[in-house]
Hints:
alpha+beta, globular, single chain, four-stranded mixed beta sheet, four-stranded antiparallel beta sheet
Amino acid sequence: MDLRRVDQANTSFIFNSLKSYPWVRMSSPTGTDSLPTLLTGAFPPEHGFFGIKLKPGSSRALTTRLIDKLPDIFTTTVQCIFHLFNGSYDLPAIPPKRRRNFEILRTIQNKEYKKTENLLQFGGLKSLLGVIGIENCCYLYSRTSNPVEELVHKVGTGKHNLEVVHLYSFDLLQRWNLDKVEKIELVYECFDIFVRAVYEKCKSNKVTLLLFSDHGYDQIQGYIDLKQELRELDLAEDEYTYFIELSMARFWFFSERARNRIVRMLREIPNSRFFSWKDLQQFNLSFDDAQYGEAFIMSYPGFAFFPHDFHHPIANLFLGIADPKQRPRLFNPRHRGDHSLLPDFESAKGFMILFDSDYKPCKEEIDLVDVSPTILELLGTEIPPAMNGSSVFKLGKA
């Protein structure tokens, strides 16, 4: 939810709540894997989830070499079909000759990470849910576009010490419809009604409501074709590999020639910013080596990389038909909205409201790692030393 779109006209309840209850702005670590960071209260170098990382070697068996000779459109189509029926492929749009080089750590597309019992720890770190205990908490992941009718009765029951509700539909709707002003206003209005309904239910059940959004959204105005830029460098495929997301791309190099040419190219791409893996330290991403990427490029607000490693024509067609929220992709496979991963831009900012006027915020802006420690302290539970963050609210009027 973008704080810039919260107003009296379409989100009156949340708008007025910002005046009545303690709240803070929020920044998230650069990257798209926010769930492990949120639940562990630790940054990616500690829990280990940062998209993908390079494996220390790859298979060159006869079968592998034969598969690599097949056209990419054929191999990725086969992967997408398998993924459709049994979920066996994460990132199926990446050709096997690149995909096998990666250890895929992304959680957002893994079905197993939508169950409470599979969210108790990440990378050996006990999560917020693990600290509370499986018997005392639940995690609800929802893609419904009608949360008022389909979700309110499931939450705020008071049966658990902690209920975490992840409303992913709100994200999807903005990704594919942010160019439609009236529709987005209706979406925000619907979400505001949902929050009000949850608030009233929580209040009647003596449950404290905490609302947070980890980032906002910018409408995409232009697209950057990194794959075309790479083709123009005339490098062999075995000299480098890459992983391209909507707002960030990362590269690994297997020859000095590829490193020099690609880094020079990345530095010259407009509407973006280049980083070496060591530069990521400024974003609390202090990795010991370049296994998560040697070179990175991140787009500015309003710009995105396309084609990226999530796009496949067959998958795009299926998702556009199967999910009304994504119907616009049938007419244009490019996302309409996204958020910057660069923390100095507004769309990278989120916010958190505690619906309890007995508290006040300790600081004006927090990080995503502060959410779990805040919840644990509100529950009167000890905060594990592995959590990087700290509690945000304390008793006392603002």
